[in-house]
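I hope you will forgive my troubling you with a question about protein structure. You will find the record immediately after this paragraph.
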Amino acid sequence: MVLAGLEIFSSEEHTKQKDQGVESEEMGAWRLQLSKERAETLKRVWSAVFYATASFLIVVINKVVLTTYKFPSYQVLGLGQMVVAIVALFSAKQLNLVSFPDFSLEVTKKIWPLPLFYLGNLVCGLGGTQKLNLPMFTVLRRFSILFTMILEYIVLRVSATFSVQLSVSLMIIGAIVASSADLAFDTMGYVLITVNNVCTAGNGVYTKKKLDAQFLGRYGLIFYNSFFMLIPTIALAVIGQEFQKAAAFKQWNNPVFLIYFLASCFMGFILNYATVLCTAYNSALTTTVVGVFKNLLITYLGMFIGNDYVFSWVNFVGLNISVIGSLIYSVITFRAKQSKSPVLSNGQITRV
């Protein structure tokens, strides 16, 4: 009887220890899973913060270089950004950090005319940043959405929904109201930003149309756009005597200016990397939403950056109308993209 009791007790103890071992393993697995989820959450948060910071800083730094320090040549600054993009991406490709196709005639055929839009975007965008205050620059950039809608209808036969058309109309009305009372009006600045908007729309629409150019990938497009437009940009700078203007600039011995200038040259590449990182760890929707909040910051904080914003109530009301329109537009596009986003259910990817 005693032996039987000991055997039963021993069996119960063994079972209890076994159950505790299973519970311990489950607890360990749960903690490991929790640790992984926390790590993923941190990656998502920090990649979004990195993108928001980069997209905000590139506008502010360009503004400081071109307006606060009055650097005379936005073409030379654009050339610096091109050179950095080419050198950085070529080096990264050699180190196998990024990949894109090697140069060939096929690449030339497939990418054209996107380099022209890239050049217009870069140079006219920097020129607009130099000539306009940041609130007006940000608001007038919203015309690119209108131009994109028009080009998509003409080239791709794609019509925007009524709600999108309404929100874009609100943005444009706000921009027109703000422009009517822009006390710092600059004709060349408005011309440059208009060309910038047309190039942005053309780049977006023709990238969709020329699906064969997409095999280059984001980094391939940046590299070859910069590569093909490097010589034409140098030629334009020589014709316009931009190098002489830059050489005569008095601040080259100012270390603070040099930091801003080099930061501007590198920020274009850093922004593209941050965009890829944010989209990879989050989604294109998160990147879009972060971009919207960045534009809000630039619109209002830009009134105090560069010291070239002249306040008037009509202009301020117009800015706010355009901001409201952009927020409505962002909500509409967010919901539209969200309804098409893939959802993982029972191991199967479905769309909701």
User: Anything to note?
Assistant: The longest strand covers residues 342-345. The mean pLDDT is 77.
